[in-house]
Each structure stands twice: as C-alpha cells, then as structure tokens.
Amino acid sequence: MTETRLRFGILGCANIARKVSRAILLSPNTTISAIGSRSLEKATAFASENRFPESTNVYGSYDSVLEDPDVDAVYVPLPTSLHLRWAVLAAEKKKHVLLEKPVALNVGELDAILEACESNGVQFMDATMWMHHPRTQMIKQVILSDEQRFGQLKSVHSTFSYVGEGDFLKNDIRVNPNLDSLGALGDAGWYCMRAILWAHDYDLPKTVTAFRDPEYNESGVILSCGASLNWEKDGKVATFYCSFLSNLCMDLIALRTRGNFRVHDFIIPFNEKVGSFEAVANSRWTELGCAPEPSEYTIATDLPQEALMVQEFARLVHGIRGGKAKPEKKWAVISRKTQLVIDAVVASIKNGFVPVEVVY
C-alpha cells in the first residue's frame, strides 16, 4: 500500500525555501500543497520558478496557507522575528511545524512555540539539515559511540563562515536588526552550536564565554563572533567561530583521548550525493612523521540531506496522524538546548564577555 504524501504549505519565498521545496518534491512521502507570500505575484512566480505541482494553491498571504484544509504541515522560512507569531498560529491550526533556524530570537519565544506545538499535538522540528545525512549517523556510530577505541571526548572545534557578497552586509535579512537581530550568531553560529552539542550527546556546557571583539555592521548586528564552552568535568571544552566576513569554511573537529575525527563540509556536503570524513585512532610519532595516517570514510546517499530531513519529518507526522505515535519530543529538546547556548553567548557579550552559566 502506497503511503499518503504529507502535504506541505510554505510560508514565504526566502532563498532557503528553494532548497527545501526541491527537497519536498524529491522526498517520496511529501508534496507541496500551498505556497503563500505577502504578494500573490511573488508567490506565483516562486511556484513557477521552482516547478511546483500544478495543483499547488498559491496565496497572497500566510494566513491563507494556514486556513487551507489541504495543508497538513508548514515549512516556515520567514525571518526569525516572525517565527513566534506564525509558528504558534500554525500549531493552533493543527499544522505540523518544520521551522527554519535559528528557530527564535531567544528561548522565551521558543518555549511559546514549543508549548503551542505540544498543546495542539503537532510535530515540531527545526530545519538543521546536516543532522539527517547518513554521514552524521555513521560518525555517531563509528566514532562517538566507541570509547574503547577512540577514548573519551575532550574538545570540539566548529567553524562556519562565508563572505556576504554585494550588498549583503547592509541589506540582507540576516543583518537587519528588525528581522534577524542575531545576525551571524543565529544564521551560522546555530550550526556550530548544534554540532558541539551533538558531539557531546547534548550534554549542556556549564558555562559559555564569548570571545572579545565581535564584529558588527552599522546597525549593530553581529557579523562575526565566537565563544568557548566549558563543562567543568573531565576537562571537556569546545570553541566555535562564525562569520559573514571570512572565506567559506564548514569545519568540525572532535578530539578524543585516543583518536579524533574531522569533517570539512559538515553543514552542506560539497557533493550532495556523497559525504566524507576523516578519522584516526592511536596516532604516534615516527622517525619520518606520524602514523597511522587518518582514514577517509565516504558515505553515499540517494537523496540529499534536506530531502532526508523532510522524509523523516513526514514519517513522524504519519505516525501521529495514524494514531500510532505521539509527537517526537527529542527535536524540541535539541532545539531548546541549542537556543540556550545561543542565548548564553548573547548574554556573555552584553555583560562584558564574562562566563554565563547555562541552565536548562
């Protein structure tokens, strides 16, 4: 029996929605049922340019998407300042919520979103795509779960940077204080935080201390920043750096007592059909250098990570709609922990780069 496709409505025509709408159409258990924008003309053009099904309902408002009975779930790629309003409204309309990151401006807003989703029995998931790549699962299984071979986790270093070209630094939504006031910290730093927490099996750090001298645009929005995270046990530490001002870099390095691994493209694989990483255990100095050399692992995937994300989201929703399951709460917990660390970085910067305790 063929599984019914989950019918998505999309709120807004952001650039990232092009990637995710393609993913929805590639996934075998999802389809696009509606698209809404503040302009009917813009929504119509977006649907045409991205080859939406002819049956897609096109609207000149977000409310119309939420009122559409043919929409089971919504993907929300709106500016972060609009997430609270529209994610809550979607949940109240019994639409399952796939929310673009950063999910909120602060954990208070996120708590309101999560409460609305829970009270209305709808699935919540943030759109952190790399978590759904099979490479991510393999690293967890091969490296992070094998303490006997690789030892205990000691440090993680995560970097996500790219150059905002053209008028990006002045006019892009991500540097507009009224739309995405978290700037690079929310857009790029979110990935770094999530990677660090993932490597630590979501064990929150005790304190977060922002690095001095973050860079800002004329409106006071962060363009680059970093921080250190400290667990105050087992000597575990982590650092991250995110930026709109540095060459493209998506590095993740984790050091364990007897081994380490490195990923050069952990956020978006250089090739969407293949993900690779390097790992090594028990490295030693030799007369001519060191050995053994790191091994490269390569993981192929038939679907890009964003399609795997919406496929998993749809699987969870189908379980709820079929009465076989309740909403999976782990995604809400992971999102909240990521947001808490983001908030701690903001607080550390505002308070003179002092350590800020992280409390769940």
From TrEMBL:
Record-annotated Gfo/Idh/MocA-like oxidoreductase N-terminal domain positions: 6-125
Domain of life: Eukaryota
Signal peptide segment: none
Pfam families in the record: GFO_IDH_MocA, GFO_IDH_MocA_C3
GO MF annotations, alphabetized: nucleotide binding
Domain named GFO/IDH/MocA-like oxidoreductase: residues: 146-247
Family membership noted in the UniProt record: Belongs to the Gfo/Idh/MocA family.
PANTHER family according to UniProt: GFO_IDH_MOCA-LIKE OXIDOREDUCTASE N-TERMINAL DOMAIN-CONTAINING PROTEIN, PTHR46368
Protein name: Gfo/Idh/MocA-like oxidoreductase N-terminal domain-containing protein
Protein species of origin: Deinandra increscens subsp. villosa
